[in-house]
Amino acid sequence: MKNNIRLLVIEDNEEIIDLIKLYKPDNFFMKEAKNGKEGLKEFSKEIFDIVVLDLMLPIVDGYEVLEKIREKSNIPIIILSSKNLDFEIILGLDKGADDYIVKPFNPMELFARVNALLRRLSFSEKDNKKIACDNLELNRDSCEVLKNRKKIDLTGQEFKLLEFFMVNKNIVFTKNIIMERVWENDYYDENVVSVYISRIREKIGKNSDGENYIVTIRGLGYKFDG
């Protein structure tokens, strides 16, 4: 499991938000949204590791938020709701939630379940040892990158950056999010990201269509075109 966890809490009850903040581990960065529309906006702006979602939200309800997130991502989602009837719980799980906790709740149990989901995801990612895109293959066990079965020499940081892009294909990331997720520290220099991407492009070359694998999205950032 990663050292720094980004948690999105979509909840309109201030007392519950404060309770979650109080009990969250030190390595969790928490962003909150107080209605469904704001929650979807935050989710589209940043990359998170897990979502805690209320169902009875203003503007856009939790079921719709869940469906819209699931259209784009397999991120772990825990529903936190006072809806406690069997059919309501089943509906939430059927729509794509990974877990369901009924209010009132124990915040220590919430974070125990959060950590359990993240551990499960971590084990699943480790099982997926090879990532392939077009004629490019990345092996997480051997830390090797092959193009047309020929090895490409990358530094450790270049490998981590390419792995990040290949795992998150077709998602646009700003430079500061790339820095946070790949370098995992508070130091930020946008030139570092640009230099590393330039080096990777030079080493891996073009895809089979003659285009860059890592594409610049003007005014926004970069994405891996998979």
From TrEMBL:
Xref: Gene3D superfamilies = 3.40.50.2300, 6.10.250.690, Winged helix-like DNA-binding domain superfamily/Winged helix DNA-binding domain
InterPro entries recorded for this chain?
Answer: CheY-like_superfamily (IPR011006), OmpR/PhoB-type_DNA-bd (IPR001867), Sig_transdc_resp-reg_C-effctor (IPR016032), Sig_transdc_resp-reg_receiver (IPR001789), WalR-like (IPR039420), WH-like_DNA-bd_sf (IPR036388)
| Keyword Membrane found | no
What keyword terms does UniProt attach to this protein? DNA-binding, Phosphoprotein, Transcription, Transcription regulation, Two-component regulatory system
OmpR/PhoB-type domain spans which residues? 128-226
Residue positions of the PTM 4-aspartylphosphate?
Answer: D54
Key word Transcription regulation present in the record?
yes
The GO cellular component terms are:
cytosol; protein-DNA complex
**Example GO BP:** regulation of DNA-templated transcription
What's a single GO MF annotation on this record? Answer: phosphorelay response regulator activity
Q: Domain of life here?
A: Bacteria
- DNA-binding region extent: 128-226
Q: Where is the Response regulatory domain?
A: 6-118
**PANTHER family tied to this protein:** REGULATOR OF RPOS, TWO-COMPONENT RESPONSE REGULATOR ORR33
Name of this chain's protein: Response regulator transcription factor
Task: Provide the species name.
Answer: Anaerococcus porci
